[in-house]
Task: inverse folding
């Protein structure tokens, strides 16, 4: 999957993510995905997360899921998805075992999240979408307060998945991060045109100003069951 900022310059209004459950599917454009993931990346950085830190996600299939993914990938963070069917004790194990510094959760899992976090004090950053949770910051409020402007390097992050645990406790699979930087197109083998587009996107010279009227949460109420990424 290409960094969405490249498409943000050429096709900002093209659909990047679709949650297709009803007649009125919820959609996120490339411009929205770029802006919102950038805001979240800046918010996490402001809260102390640095390259190699871990962000956990506990949610049903959701339109916002890829925002967390891209915020991690563009910040040198690991994203670890938590199985929504896990019990609080199992969630707590994954949070502590992964060394998660942040948890982004859906309000649908507010109760199990709170129970798991009671024994996971190292998870200092706690965000929740679709509602309020005790000791959680509202996801949309955090994005609204954060800047969409990319500053500094963009080290590649990664995904830390967990085994099913059929022979014991689930184990995390954590590959070493590469030394690549998303703001250095030569390092990822892009062609000259893509390099130029990526430089435009990461400098925020086009997309942020063209989409200055976009506000977090503007894509409507979530109706999640599945998502599809389109390029």
Result:
């Amino acid at each position: 999957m290409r960094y969405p900022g490249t498409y943000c310059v050429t096709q900002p209004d093209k659909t990047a993510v679709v949650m297709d459950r009803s007649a009125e599917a919820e959609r996120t454009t490339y411009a929205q995905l770029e802006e919102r993931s950038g805001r979240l990346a800046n918010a996490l950085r402001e809260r102390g997360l640095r390259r190699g830190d871990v962000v956990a996600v506990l949610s049903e299939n959701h339109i916002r899921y890829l925002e967390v993914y891209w915020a991690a990938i563009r910040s040198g963070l690991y994203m670890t998805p938590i199985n929504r069917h896990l019990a609080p004790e199992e969630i707590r194990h994954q949070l502590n075992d992964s060394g998660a510094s942040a948890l982004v959760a859906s309000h649908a899992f507010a109760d199990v999240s709170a129970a798991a976090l009671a024994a996971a004090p190292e998870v200092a950053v706690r965000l929740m979408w679709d509602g309020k949770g005790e000791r959680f910051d509202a996801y949309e409020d955090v994005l609204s307060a954060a800047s969409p402007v990319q500053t500094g390097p963009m080290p590649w992050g990664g995904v830390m998945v967990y085994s099913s645990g059929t022979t014991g406790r689930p184990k995390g699979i954590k590959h070493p991060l590469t030394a690549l930087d998303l703001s250095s197109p030569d390092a990822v083998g892009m062609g000259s045109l893509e390099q130029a587009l990526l430089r435009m996107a990461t400098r925020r010279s086009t997309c942020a100003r063209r989409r200055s009227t976009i506000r977090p949460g503007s894509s409507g109420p979530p109706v999640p069951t599945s998502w599809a990424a389109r390029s």
